[in-house]
Amino acid sequence: MAKTSSVEKNNRRRRLAAQYADKRKRLKEIADDLKLPAEERFAARMKLAELPRNSSPVRIRNRCEMTGRPRGYYRKLRMCRNQLRDLASQGLIPGMVKSSW
Questions:
Q1: Cα–Cα distance, 36 to 27 (Å, whole number)
Q2: What pTM was estimated for this model as a whole?
């Protein structure tokens, strides 16, 4: 089980990223538009830099929904490999069977 503070910090980052997504998208479009004057694009970059760092989606870490473990994460199932193995062994994941030979 991951530290509760790490999981909560990541949840805060998710909320901030969702909150600032529209503003960040608009500023990036302005900053990347080569038809606009350089001063306007630079101003958009400066406003982008003033946004909270944790509002960037790059800072969000994929974590297991059950344990909060950051490593061995399967995106499709949103859980780590350990929990995936346990649930598959118990037969709780449809269509997944533990192999044996």
A1: 13
A2: 0.82
